[in-house]
Here is the input.
Amino acid sequence: MLFDIISIVCIFAIICLCAVLIESRRENHMLSVSHYTITDKRIKKSATFAMIADLHNAEYGDKNEKLIKEIKKIAPDAVLIAGDVIVGKKDVSPGVAIDLLQKLGSEFPVYISKGNHEMRTGLYTEQYGDIWECLYEQTKDYAHWLINEKATLASDNIQIVGLDIDAAYYRRFRLQKMETDYLVKLLPTRHQDAYTILLAHNPDYFPVYAEWGADLVLSGHVHGGMVILPVLGGVVSPMVRLFPKYYRGMYECRNKKMILTGGLGGHTLKFRVNNKPEICVIHLEGE
Here is the structure.
């Protein structure tokens, strides 16, 4: 009798696992579009941005034609990318990311910040070779790489700042403390009267970004927590922390906002359940 019960439980578990794997495979080939509207009196002219992150060399259709088509349908004023377009592994070509940035940059203004994969391939060249150099050199004429730099959209009174933080802030298992002074020293002085968008790949430091003065933070990195459970939310972050506080959606701190995308791809465990790859559409409007 006990053997029969154990057998039934094992069979049920295998069926559930197979169902989850099938669903994950299905979701990894889908695209979702999420819309966010934000109003602020400093915005002189309404603007629409398409925001993506964590491509990790993923392809939607031949040479990402499906992804590009979806972005064209949005007809954004600019495309904002919060890092990790590549996979930071030895001998993994950045060709997919280069092709996408060149195509998007031929159609729209593109502003992009580094993620941890771009950071480490540029920092540890003895391990990763020329991956970062190839990516940057072949896309710099198509995309504005904001590496602790800013760009100002004068007609809209909007400034976009790209953040590139130290490797210590991407360590697994524990959260390295970040002080606001670190950002003050790292980033250019922002215009107090402008609406500031901060492209910051790691969302864990949202309260620090808000204290620094970012009006809107755009982040990725967490991949939506891979599996999103009802009530509990995202299950695990790339920092190997269970049920991360920030995993996907819009958050608020100090009257500042953060939009955290579930991302487009993966690099080690390409696992998604209730967490479709995502393009975020951000509508900025004056009050």
